Amino acid sequence: MKRSGPDARAISTGATDDPAAGLVTTGDRMQRYAELVVRVGANVQPGQDVVVNGLVEHVEIVRAVVRAAYRAGAQHVVVNYGDLHLRRAAIELGPESEIGWSAPYLLDWIRRWPDENPAVIALAGNPDPELLSDLDPSLVGRADPREIRAAYLESVSGRHVNWTIAAAPNSGWATQVFGEPDVEQLWDAVATATRLDADDPVAAWREHTEGLQARADALNVRAFDAIRFIGPGTELEVGLLAVVPWRCATLETRGGITHVPNLPTEEVFVSPDWRRAEGTVRSTYPLVAAGRKIDGLEVRLEAGKIVDVRADSGAEVIQVQLATDDQAPYLGEVALVDGSSPVKQTGLVFSDTLFDENATCHVAYGGAYAEAVEGGVIEGVNVSNVHTDFMVGGPEVDVDAVTRSGTVVPLLRNDVWQLGE
Amino acid sequence: MKRSGPDARAISTGATDDPAAGLVTTGDRMQRYAELVVRVGANVQPGQDVVVNGLVEHVEIVRAVVRAAYRAGAQHVVVNYGDLHLRRAAIELGPESEIGWSAPYLLDWIRRWPDENPAVIALAGNPDPELLSDLDPSLVGRADPREIRAAYLESVSGRHVNWTIAAAPNSGWATQVFGEPDVEQLWDAVATATRLDADDPVAAWREHTEGLQARADALNVRAFDAIRFIGPGTELEVGLLAVVPWRCATLETRGGITHVPNLPTEEVFVSPDWRRAEGTVRSTYPLVAAGRKIDGLEVRLEAGKIVDVRADSGAEVIQVQLATDDQAPYLGEVALVDGSSPVKQTGLVFSDTLFDENATCHVAYGGAYAEAVEGGVIEGVNVSNVHTDFMVGGPEVDVDAVTRSGTVVPLLRNDVWQLGE
Fold first, then answer.
1. Residues in contact with B323: Cβ distance below 8 Å, sequence separation at least 6, in sequence order
2. How far apart are the first and last CA of chain A?
3. In the 8-state DSSP scheme, what is residue B371?
4. Given A65, A111, A193, B59, which is the most exposed site by the fewest CB atoms within 10 A?
5. Structurally, how many domains does chain B consist of?
6. Residues B291-317: pLDDT tens digits?
7. pTM, whole model, 2 decimals?
8. Domain that includes residue B113, residue range
9. Nearest beta carbon to residue A86 from set B79, B101, B106
10. B186 and B209 both lie in a single domain
């Protein structure tokens, strides 16, 4: 695909010729954050319809985002409030045959997004990652509405929607991070991680995405054949595909809207060759996936496939995810993040993948983002309805690249980026 | 229509042969209340799909209702969380041409309800009736999604869904009632009003609905020709139709599910002749309608039509409602409530129509409930997409019935019911 660098539209209002116009840099933090999400993240266009997906615990930020979306010129803003307690009720008390059911009225609608091309804003920040931990893991692992997820991924992978995922600080999440519901402190960390407190967030984001693009370009010039992670409990080599480039930060829809799909984003990432991964890897952060917190995850891969899963807690839900479809146990992403990441520099474990995956290197099992490849999916790029990132980097984990001739090139040592541009 | 009295299914689980089985009478109040809403109110059937409409401020009760619905055997429970702040944002910041827009994906779904026949549970209890009070009344009055409302009323009037409206105490509403966010005190009042604290709520509801039915029967035997309200600022006569009966408390779907559409419900009501209403009427309670609080409402009717509206505040939103369609300014309901109502006996003004209309007599402008008439709408029964009740009764308001021969029969004096059974 076209590897568009950041341009004025991606980091401005999309509504004027002045890149900085419309981004509120005064006023309260919630409002400035909402503007960042709408105008830099999703890059909502005048006259566009906007979908906001958040939890009931995200209500204040949802309201701020909706107002920012109308200010950006949205025609209609539709909010879908989710509630993890309803998922718990369905698992615990509903008919087992219906777990993972997708409501047809929502499914039909999401399946129309490739024609309707809304902007899609999703809010992360789980208020209670342990909410489902006492339920049968085999049921919890099936509770994600599979058809809705597939339809959603089709719009995302097909570049039909300008989408972003951003954080919604809330007291439950703050308690996970700090041991107490200190939402203000979490807001401070989120503001740091998203460069919200920069004197000029627009300029900061332009500079940041240019830097990540330079890193991706440097990797692409070398055309490496594999990536190696070596550290405590980790010795993993993942093969790369010659035709698949490293990417970063910004995406562009078929209609030409550039957007930043994750706020924060600190990674350069690639869709690896799903047939080539060997070794073991130990997760360096706790993982929240499928409504469970998984501590001490370790997996072993043979010929690309995850063949063994161990964890101090929650391994069962990973097993259920891996059984979702045939390609779920293969890798769909390798991503590199160095220690200069402001997420890393907060010194926090967020227990939220959006943040923790931007603090350090990570890999994902399940499907690759198909938009990473010009002209659609090609051989060796994994296709699955699952996509779960887990963190594998840190100062003790050396990351190397291997050239086609077998030369080993250091990429990260002690969390410091080694490759010149 | 069949005027079904209360039967075992209406006031029990619908799931067993034992009328009292399944209604939790121990456990916390929230859970008992949710069971009452699900099993007495909507009378959810095993295997049925259930729709719950609530505001984000109703989240705790929504969760309890969802759990109760699954316990009653629901197959799927779908929750639509609404948020009045999103309506405010759309009015204030969105394109004016789109105010009142109905999201097509929701509209299409609700239009399928006549075939899908879900149970529908709506939660009332406005956390902030003044939220829209500083906005342009002509925009506020248009902000209700017209097509969704029409589709919803079609399912209700067509007896396609077993529905109920119940209260969701919340701190904003409590502040309206008590001047402080005393939610526990509001729960006490709601429990009193809904007979939740009766030793046997099932028996209490059976007895109550039988009493209301006896009152409706007594009115129907007399075949009155008109109703008169006479009190301070009020002198109103409303004509009745010979073929339209007084009704109460319970409804029955085409599929034979008996349900209690309002919790609480203390009224006997009738769809009057929209062509025959003359005089003036002063509202005896504040009214919350179309997102506004209306104080001191007074209307004048000529030849059935509201021709003049005055209020200390909020008259403009009433004017906008009355302009919605040609039949909106005509009456669609006359309802009688005496002072023995437990809602009345709380001594509170709830500033919520669901409660205040069950404390005293009321009339509604706009459409009648078409299910009040066997075989569909007949001449003289009003049809409109508007239905707004306002309270007109109280100890100072005498209510009389007028026979076809002109004899005046007292119905209410000093809030005491006068008609023998």
1. none
2. 22
3. G
4. A111
5. 2
6. 778 999 999 999 999 999 999 998 988
7. 0.86
8. 26-200
9. B79
10. no
